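Continued from yesterday's entry.
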Amino acid sequence: MAIDGPVKLSFQLMRDAEPAIGPGKALVLEAIDREGSISAAGRAIGMSYRRIWLLAESLNTDWRERVIETRVGGGKSGGAQLTPFGRKLLDTYRNVEARMMAVAVGDDLDWLVAARAPTG
């Protein structure tokens, strides 16, 4: 979820010192889901193949169930897709993110934004 304006509100669920899921990994999952391959997902979000592959692998090792399934091969036989668990993980992450933003919007958030020192 992109939040425009002076506020960025996000959360991460950590596994040791690394995020098991956060804004970046959610973006990767959405791109893989939309594009149907890891390499195409990387191109779509401007990420190198190595970087997106490492993130996909970490997603599969950070959880008890696989998040992404890959199929070797080119053309229509190869690709990647979210597992049912991966779909639930992404949907749950985005739902929590939306609820967190809904709670933050209002007088408290308006007050925080207004209380910032001007830039420049």
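--- second protein ---
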Amino acid sequence: MTATMTTRQAEAWLEQRQFFTIKLGLDTTRALLDELGNLQDRLRIVHIAGTNGKGSVGATLQAILAAAGLRAGFYSSPHLIDVRERFRINDALMPAADFARLTARLAALIGTRFEPTYFECTTLLALLWFAEQRADAVILETGMGGRLDATNVVLPLLAIITDISRDHEQYLGSTLTAIAGEKAGIVKSGVPTVFSGRAAEALPVIEARCQQLESPLFVFGRDFSAQATGDSTFTYQAVTGAVHADLPLPLRGDHQVVNTALALAALDVLAPIFPVAAEAVATGLRQVRWPGRMELIPVRHRKKTVRVLLDGAHNEAGVAALVQTLRTDYADCRLLLIWGNMADKHMGEPLFDLLTLAAAIILTRTESPRFAAPETLFAGLPPEFRAKTRCCETVDQALAIVLEQAKPDDLICVAGSLYLVGRARHLLSGGLDG
């Protein structure tokens, strides 16, 4: 009989898996799924890889499928506050009781025979729960790469590859061609692929992989397209050629036009399996929520209301997108920036563009040992930025300072690592959605 766990015991057991850090490869996940009866084969899966935009595309797909009356599962990473954020069916997180029970089952199965990573364990938990709950559709987001990512043990109905840029170069390669080769690993024989196609170096790699595996390929700008038509609407030209005007644009940032189009193109391709009416598309788009990504929240502080923009811009392309949004939508605001990033991240020129926009900067960190120390970040700044920059050891202190300084017309931006954004969001809004 499987031993039981409390939620805290389950979280602690999972945290211990962090000691094995990143381990690329499929052997452990495949071996454990074999012992679980290969339950992933019972699921109808959409598999998503890419450097940026995976979560936005997945959240959009889930919202539309849910609006169409389906029970749509979504496995994403990382989480902001609670590990259960990684596992959703429609608007609901995995219940705490299910999380504890399934983690106990997984721990008993693993015993001392395997040393799976945290991500391998959460991937198995997701597949276990979605199979148990008989989800109608499952959206599975890769953690890193694709070819050797723990999620790449499935045969999906469709693969989606979002924008490709430089990140995790020590694991995926230092060129866009090499990184695209890793992302292309989720393409399967005869299974359609939808691709953003916006990186010129990446497109030939994806095209060659799809041709080799006879995977029908649909590329943004060639086989389907979209264009913003206002602050919160866009026009979409479908894979079929049909044009849909004045659709709600659910998420902030010009890059979200492409991400939303990828989700809609996926639905075009999957229409024989998951038919979705136009009304459900519009309803679903209005209901998309993706916390911590270009998320604007009002915060009441000492009889004043200030605006806070939260964005997990954790790599060079993400920071560039944030800078574009700030220049386009908030050009008239005084910007107060709270920033922190992992020590292994290199943001390049976009970070200096962001720092240039800020009137004041606070560098901070979470408790993770992987975080860059604020003093280290400060030491690496050009002299012209140091006069407007200070360091805080905790997110709590940074928020307290900036909320005192902010005026109602200012914009506070908290950006960098998603764990930093998650901590700030928890403090500002009282915790977890769902």
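The chain is about 40% helix and 20% strand. The mean pLDDT is 92. Will compare against the first tomorrow.
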